[in-house]
Amino acid sequence: MKTIRSFMSYGLLILLSLAIAAPLILLIFNSFKTESEFQANPFGLPTTWTFTNIASAWVQGNYAHAYLNTFIVAAVTIVVVLFSSGLGAYALATLRFKWSTSFMAYLLFTMMVPSGMFLVPIFFMWQRFHLMNTLVGLVIVYCGIFMAFNVFLIRSYFVNIPMEIRESGLVDGASEFSVFFRIFVPMSKPVFFTAALILVVWTWNEFFYANALLLNQNIKTVSLSYLAFTGRFTQNWTLISAGGLISILPILILYLFLQRRFIQGILEGSLK
Q1: Domains of the chain
Q2: What transmembrane ranges does the database entry give (predicted)?
C-alpha cells in the first residue's frame, strides 16, 4: 500500500514538474528556430539551431541598457534593504523597547496591504520631487516594498542566536553596532544570502511600479524592455521567444545553480 502511495505521489510530482517545465522548454526550442520552421513545427525540436534570433533580439530590444539598468537597481536595492532590514531585525530580536510589538504589527500590516494601493500617491509625490523617470525613484519604492518581509526573515534567524553571545560582546566593550557587524552578521550569512537571492528575483521580475515610474526608453528595466519588444514584433514568435529567453536567462541560471542554498537559507531561518 505504501509502495502504491509513493508511486502515485512521485507520479503526480513528475506530472506537475513537466507541466511547469514544458512552457520553458518550448520557449528555448522556439528561440533557436527560423520563422518558417516555427510555422511548420511550433512544438518540436529545431532541426537546425540558429543563434540569429538571440543576437537580433538583443540588439533590437535594447537589452544592453535594460540589463545595466536592472543590475544597478538590483544591486542598490539589495545593499540598502539588507543593511536596513538587518539593523531592524537586530533591534527587534535583541532589544526590548516600548513599541516593539506595535512596530512588528505595523510591519506585518504593510505586508498584508497590496502594494498597488500606494501607486497613485507615489506617482504624484515622485512628480513633485522630480523622481519620475529615474532609477533612484524606483529603488526607493523597491526598498519600501521589500523591507518588511526581509526584517521578519532575518529576525527569525537572529532570535535563535544565543543572547549570551551578544551580552559577552557588550561586556567586553563592544557597541551594539560592533556586535551586529562582527557577531550577528557573520553568524547569519545563510539568511542574508537567501534574502539577497529573493531580492534579485523580485527586482528582476517587478513590473507594476517600473512600468508606472519609468517612461524613458533608455532607463527601462528588462521586464519593460521585453514588453516593448513584444509590442513591436507581435507576429514574429521566434524573436519574441528569443527576447523572453534573454529576459529570464539570468534568473534561470541563478536558480539552477543556487536553488539548494536558497531552500537551505529559508529552512534555517524558519526552523533553526
Answers
A1: 2-50 (no CATH), 60-271 (1.10.3720.10)
A2: 7-29, 71-93, 105-126, 138-158, 179-204, 237-258
